[in-house]
Amino acid sequence: MTRPVTTTLEIPVADGERDTYSLKMGPQHPATHGVLRVDLELDGETILKCTPHVGYLHRGFDKIAENRTYAQTLILTDRLDYIGAMANNVGYCVAVEQLLGISVPVRAKYIRTMVCEMSRICSHLLWLATHALDIGAMTVFLYCFREREILLDLFEELCGARLTFSYPRIGGVRQDVTPKFIDELQRFVNLFPDRIKEYETLIDTNRIWLKRTVGVGTLSGDKALALGLTGPCLRGSGVDYDIRRHRPYDAYDQLEFEVPLGSDGDIYARYRCRMEELRQSVRILQQCIDMLPPGSILDTDAPDLLMPLQNTKKIEADSTSYGTGIIKFMEEQGVYPAGDVYVSTEAPKGELGFYFISDGSARAYRMHIRSPSFIHISALPTIAKGELIADLIANIGSLDVVIGECDR
Amino acid sequence: MEIAKRLKGRFPDEVLEICSFHGQIGVIIRREQVLDILRWLRDTPGIQMNHLMDLCGVDNAKRNDDSLQRFEVVYNLYSVEMRHSLRIRAQIPEQEPCIDSITPLWVGADWHERECFDLMGISFTGHENMKRILLPEDWQGHPLRKEYPLKGREEWSGMEELLHKVETLQQFGFNDGPNQDNEKS
Question: Which of A68, B81, B128, B173 fits as disulfide partner to A72, beta carbons 3.0 to 4.6 Å?
């Protein structure tokens, strides 16, 4: 006996309302660039609501920093945005120098500017590689990693590390640059503009790339500012805000460069901004090589922040005139001036700010890190709402988030 | 400094003290009218502090200053057009750690405030989604308070459940337990 076969298929519909579909993306999804979980509520392929969940990588840097000396906290900043770790180190050092009133020799300033821009190129290259891979362009990924490798080799030549550098020091840098490093950097600077053109020929007018990026994830300038976006994401919307220009640190006030601005505020505009920034970074690197002044690389007034071997002054364990970081007991008050500063620098991802409160001891009373990625992810629901789920991947990519920096 | 003085002139009862350190100006205020003060700073022509750079909570328990209350919320503001900045420090008493949310002014303050609630235990009235953000939702205590120990004495309460889940998975042939996974992480 055969059963009667139903021929009509009825889809249950709840009183005129369409059913929504909820989807959990991540935390192990490759396109979320780390451990980001996004809860999505979908109507077909359209996103009705998008809720990002972060915190999987929370390590409590703020709390740890309150229990370490300023010099010891430096290594934590490597673990923030590990793609552009050098920019974090520099940002931290600039902030502590302002808090403690330490001046930096000019040569160290130029070297730091140099490594900062190298770090920016590294970060933008990795962003371009993964962003293009998310959208479906495999070749760009390989091209970008080819050039990134040169830069990582340069970093290794400079300080021995390829990812977590801790190269800048409070009051200067750790080691001087070698002539070999400068030569190789010059070779890179000569070579790189052509390579940028190469990336652009691959995707700049690629029809698929344009369809995926133009007019997607659009943000007006006012809205981007209200959301707290900074860096290329804000400049893609046409707001002229670059900390290197607005509040210059290190050698940026001595150098010539342009701040590229977009106008449309979509993913393509952000992409164009970053590509132009690559060119400007090369320009800054060239100027740093040409103008690199002679002199010392570390401030002599910050002796206890140095490695003992580099210390030019004799260290005495019971000395009270200096010896705050490594030697003097950390509970002692009145070592440094008490007060609070907020200092931010232009990291590759956006505005990286450090808010410090010093109570006079050798440890920070409170350190708060304003990380660009944290704010950028918080803007994701606004950007993704009403767009297609496929564009969510492109949006996450174009915001350029690193979860290590977001969760701290 | 000029802006701080104008602010003092506009809100004479709210502004408690103006302090300066390394060229950065901080204004200590009462918490009641924080929304009005920040709106005034954002919308007044010539001041236009339209960029909220940073928002964070501070525990003043071990600070050597008796004039301060137990907690404060620090707002770092910046004007993109006028290129000046100002710091607002709103004082919050220990008995009632809450303050008005500024999400009506800056949408981007949303996660800043959630983070401040999560780590410092200051709640923001008027915030739509005042939940923990970095720590698990069943976490006890607020780590950035000064009395919170650096090293905890016990495990997180969800840990046992998590280990149980791993065990169940291993029964079904998944061998990626926490011990075998070392080289990957």
Answer: A68
Are the C-beta atoms of residues A399 and A379 closer than 8 Å to each other? yes
Task: Say if residue A48 is in the same domain as residue A116.
Answer: no
In a domain, A41, yes or no: yes
Query: Do A140 and A31 belong together in one domain?
Result: no
- Overall residue count recorded for chain B in this entry: 185
Residue A267, number of CB atoms within 10 A of its CB: 27
Specify which residues B21 forms β-bridges with.
Answer: B24
Domain that holds residue A25: 21-53
Partner-chain contact A340 B24, CB within 8 Å = yes
pTM of the model: 0.84
Residue A33 belongs to some domain of the structure: yes
Measure CB to CB from residue A339 to each of B22, B74, B115 and give the nearest one: B22
Task: Give Cα B152 distance to the centre of its chain.
Answer: 22
How many Å apart are CA B133 and CA B30, to the nearest integer? 27
Chain B residues with CB inside 8 Å of A341's CB? Answer: 21-22, 24
Interface test with B, best of A259, A366, A385 (most B CBs within 10 A): A366
CB contact under 8 A, B53 and A344: yes
Chain B contact residues (CB < 8 Å to A): 19, 21-22, 24, 26, 50-54, 56, 58-59, 62-64, 74, 76, 80, 83, 85, 87, 106-112, 115, 119, 133-136, 143-144, 148, 150
In a domain, A282, yes or no: yes
Question: pLDDT tens digits, residue range B124-145?
Answer: 888 888 888 888 888 888 888 8
Residue A289 burial class via C-beta count within 10 angstroms: exposed 0-12, middle 13-18, buried 19 and up = middle
Claim to verify: residue A32 and residue A163 sit in the same structural domain: no
Q: Which of B22, B106, B112 sits opposite A226 (nearest CB)?
A: B106
Let me know whether A31 and A111 are in one domain: no
Same domain, A49 and A69: no
Q: Is the ipTM of this complex over 0.95?
A: no
Tens digit of pLDDT for each residue in A97-117?
888 888 888 888 999 999 999
Domains assigned to chain B: 2-144 (3.30.460.80)
